């Protein structure tokens, strides 16, 4: 049931407020006999229409009108004026009053004026609501426009990164093949062997840059249920086939029964790939051979905890802190534990951007643990 419009009648003469209350019996009405009481009512529960006498004992009606229009600009005000004082009523209209009624009251005039004022107030409230809705929709539209612009920028960066990675990969493959051929077919001095090693190390840094470019080239995709066992099996096979894991042997211990996780498969692929290549790099820099990497997984609360464990060289605490800090660029060619930084930092950024927690634990000469915690598919987590 709709609540009838609420009318506030302000007049110092009780006879007038009682008469108007009788005329406006189909409305909800409240009366006040001075400006102070009227202000209290307005502040606590503003009405739909204010009927205001210009002659009040504690404040001039025009002054109260000015306060009302300042604080409640959409509230229609109908002025009550005695016969012969229409000039003040006209002044009130010029200062924002909606209408005026002369005393003694004509019932039909009062009802007509109040009905028009109520409708005017209703239309103003609707306009205000539509304006707020339009502002919200415009803000959402602007957000969408910015997102589309960002997606276009990301797509452009991805295209450029993909093209640049391709351009770098071909000559880099030639460098690798040539260095291998020279080492196998030529008698080299110790000095030239060291030079050849420096070329390989520089090529390894270029490989890391290509990995970063490939990560940037990934097209954003929707989250979907992912079987980690299948994803990681394909990733390990791809790395082995491309000869990227020379020092490390990767063993997958993720059970087939592990529930699916909700994530973006291409980006999690890239995150784990960067972790494995970083651990390979750490083994190379420590001159370790036949290092073992085990990938295991288990359900932990409403998520799957993926643990990538390398049993070879660890990373000193100060280097680990630097790795997990924002990316820095090392322009030197000499490798160090910082050479691992790019891969792990990119992996961390990709993982966290896809709703995964990323943690690294390491002790020098006692291995490295990289942990990714990925949320379960909602239907699985609810069971």
Describe this structure in words.
Among the domains are: 6-105, Rossmann fold; 223-383, Histidine kinase-like ATPase, C-terminal domain (Heat Shock Protein 90). Helix 7 crosses helix 8 (265-285) and helix 8 packs antiparallel against helix 10 (341-353). By secondary structure, the protein is an alpha/beta fold. Helix content is 54%, strand content 18%. The protein has a five-stranded parallel β-sheet with strand order 2-1-3-4-5, sandwiched between helices. The chain contains eleven helices and twelve strands. The chain is rod-shaped.
What is the topology?
Elements: E1 6-10, H1 14-23, E2 28-32, H2 35-44, E3 49-53, H3 61-71, E4 77-82, H4 86-94, E5 99-103, H5 107-185, H6 190-216, E6 224-226, H7 228-241, E7 248-253, E8 261-263, H8 265-285, E9 291-300, E10 303-310, H9 317-323, H10 341-353, E11 357-362, E12 368-375, H11 378-381
Parallel strand pairs: 1-2, 1-3, 3-4, 4-5, 7-9
Antiparallel strand pairs: 6-8, 9-10, 10-12, 11-12
How would you summarize this macromolecular structure in one to three sentences?
It is built from 11 helices and 12 strands. It is of the alpha/beta class and 383 residues long.
């Amino acid at each position: 049931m709709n609540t009838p419009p609420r009318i506030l009648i302000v007049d110092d003469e009780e006879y007038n407020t009682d008469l108007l209350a009788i005329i406006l019996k189909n409305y909800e009405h409240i009366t006040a006999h001075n400006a102070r009481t009227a202000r209290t009512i307005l502040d606590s529960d503003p009405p739909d229409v204010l009927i205001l006498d210009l002659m009040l004992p504690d404040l001039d009606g025009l002054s109260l009108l000015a306060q009302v229009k300042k604080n409640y600009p959409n509230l229609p005000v109908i002025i009550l004026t005695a016969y012969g004082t229409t000039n003040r009523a006209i002044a009130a209209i010029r200062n924002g009053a909606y209408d005026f009624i002369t005393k003694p009251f004509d019932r039909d005039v009062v009802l007509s004026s109040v009905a028009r004022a109520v409708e005017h107030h209703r239309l103003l409230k609707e306009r205000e609501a539509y304006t707020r809705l339009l502002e919200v929709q415009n803000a959402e539209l602007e957000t969408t426009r910015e997102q589309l612009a960002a997606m276009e920028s990301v797509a452009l960066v991805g295209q450029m990164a993909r093209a640049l990675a391709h351009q770098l990969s071909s000559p880099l493959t030639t460098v690798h093949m040539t260095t291998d051929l020279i080492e196998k077919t030529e008698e080299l001095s110790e000095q030239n062997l060291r030079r050849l090693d420096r070329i390989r190390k520089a090529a390894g840094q270029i490989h890391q840059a290509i990995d970063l470019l490939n990560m940037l080239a990934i097209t954003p995709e929707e989250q979907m249920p992912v079987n980690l066992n299948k994803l990681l099996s394909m990733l390990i096979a791809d790395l082995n086939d491309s000869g990227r894991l020379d020092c490390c042997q990767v063993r997958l211990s993720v059970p087939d029964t592990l529930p699916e996780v909700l994530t973006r498969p291409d980006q999690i692929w890239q995150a784990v790939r960067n972790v494995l290549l970083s651990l390979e790099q750490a083994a190379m820099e420590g001159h370790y051979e036949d290092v073992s990497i085990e990938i295991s997984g288990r359900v932990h609360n409403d998520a799957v905890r993926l643990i990538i464990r390398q049993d070879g060289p660890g990373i000193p605490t100060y280097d680990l802190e630097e790795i997990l800090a924002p990316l820095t660029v090392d322009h030197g060619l000499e490798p160090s534990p910082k050479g691992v930084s790019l891969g792990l930092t990119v992996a961390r950024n990709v993982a966290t951007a896809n709703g995964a927690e990323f943690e690294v634990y390491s002790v020098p000469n006692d291995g490295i643990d990289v942990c990714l915690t990925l949320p379960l598919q909602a239907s699985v987590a609810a069971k």
